[in-house]
Amino acid sequence: MLNVNRLRILIEVANRGSFSAAADALSYTQSAVSQQVAALEAETGVTLLERLPRGVRLTPAGQVLLSYAEGIVARLHAAEAEMAAIAGLRGGQLRMASFPTAGATLMPLAIAIFRAQHPEVELTLAEGEPEEMAPRLSAGEFDIALLFEFEGTSQSLGPDLSRLELFEDPMFLALPADHPLARRRTLRLENLRAEAWIQTSASSPCARHVVRSCHAAGFEPIVSFESDDYQTVQGLVAAGVGVALIPKLALSGAREDIAIRALSPASPVREVVAATPDGTRLTAAAAAMRQILTDVATRFVGPDIV
After folding, report:
1. Domain-by-domain residue ranges, the chain?
2. N or C: which end of the chain has fewer CB within 10 A?
3. Distances in Å between the alpha carbon of 10 and those of 27, 36, 146, 172?
4. What CATH number was assigned to the domain covering residues 4-87?
5. pLDDT tens, 267-301?
């Protein structure tokens, strides 16, 4: 493969017409320029320059190589400029992912702030549950993702992800507003063993954790309805067909005809994290978004909603 630096020297010699003029422009010695051209001729196996009494002239082979060299060097300069722009957040792309409730609350605020600060970076957002998005993040499909995991469970997002903990998202009990238990400020899961339950699809991490929590309280939940849309879950609770455990993030628009209560001694909690692929250098855009997510997350930390 031809040496790029020697191609640059050939361009300079051709443009300036002599080794000495090229040496002055490049801050090289004339001998160094001559040696580099000779080495390039050895690489190509042809004579590239005719040495004249005053200066040099390209041979036909030299003219052909010069035309390619100028294109190669120009493309390299363009690549360097684009890389510098991306590093300086003046271009490039940031590929993001999020689980749905964060995608409806935390992520829009972060995107608005990022876009105001770095309008030339192209943003994309995909949505899905952590068990779907974590492998895709590890595979390099995304630069950063909002994920969650439940503390104290064997399920993990994977060892090849770097996590930044943002905040805890507790789950609250939702009951019909006229339910007899709604008169209590706090409840224990044991109080709900006879209730019909509404939850997300059985395979979802939240549904699995609800079942684990009920098992720990000594009963098997009677699941009557499933929906991955928490607005639908709230509607079913309001209609009086069951109770549900709903994350705080999904209760930002809680209905007035349902009662929201904390569980005693503690509600189940999921940890919201900003995750990036482990072992790869964080891009400037991903680093900037991670800091913005950290700042925005403080808005979701505070007193309980009940």
Report:
1. 4-87, 168-269
2. N
3. 15, 9, 51, 72
4. 1.10.10.10
5. 889 999 999 988 777 888 999 999 999 999 999 88
